[in-house]
Design goal:
The chain is of the alpha+beta class. The chain is 25% helix and 29% strand. The longest helix has 16 residues. It binds coenzyme A.
């Protein structure tokens, strides 16, 4: 079980959070776990981000991007190493799913190496070919575009 004694809160990201978000994402990107982002990538998407703040600092982030009328993506999910396995990742994903529900989005997918984590969040594995082409826009920016080894997972609301 995750440590539920953690204090802190989830909130919508602000422009001031951009350096912390970049540090979280690019720290994991250097380990090959996610795609590297530039400041402008985050500024353009700042409305989509939520962050988890504790001890006065941002220790986790995630975003929900709407890709089409019936599908969105959870991406840019990262939790600082010192704060992993305390339930923060799940709180961030649930916040994205809540946003999806609020706006009437029926499905949310992710492309991930963290299959067991996302299973725990209620996502199910799907074949990439079953997802509409429209969802693969970000993949064109990925060095692994032609040899993707991530697993596609879908949450139906
Ligand atoms: C994946 C990640 C966000 C998980 O964050 P976290 O805060 O450690 O996860 P949580 O503590 O919320 O875990 C929720 C549940 O999933 C489980 N879990 C977490 N990471 C797991 C993993 N790698 N494998 C299997 N189960 C995992 C937890 O044990 C917990 O189970 P419980 O509810 O039964 O207690 C974090 O490990 C991370 O930042 N990884 C590197 C970046 C990355 O790969 N991001 C995903 C890009 S799609």
């Amino acid at each position: 079980m995750s440590d539920t004694s953690l204090s802190g809160h989830i909130r919508t990201a602000t422009l001031e959070d951009v350096p912390s978000i970049l540090k979280l994402i690019n720290g994991h990107a250097k380990k090959g776990l996610m795609l590297m982002k530039s400041p402008v990538d985050i500024y353009h998407n700042i409305f989509n981000f939520v962050v988890f703040e504790t001890d006065g600092k941002v220790v986790g982030c995630s975003r929900l991007s709407v890709l089409w009328k019936d599908i969105g993506e959870v991406a840019s999910l990262a939790v600082s190493d010192n704060y992993k396995r305390r339930g923060i990742g799940k709180i961030l994903v649930n916040a994205c799913l809540d946003k999806a529900k609020t706006i009437g989005l029926p499905q949310v997918f992710t492309l991930t190496y963290q299959v067991d984590f996302f299973k725990n969040c209620g996502f199910k594995k799907v074949k990439k070919e079953t997802l509409p082409y429209k969802v693969f826009g970000d993949c064109l920016k990925c060095p692994k575009v032609e040899c993707c080894d991530e697993t596609a997972m879908l949450y139906t609301i």
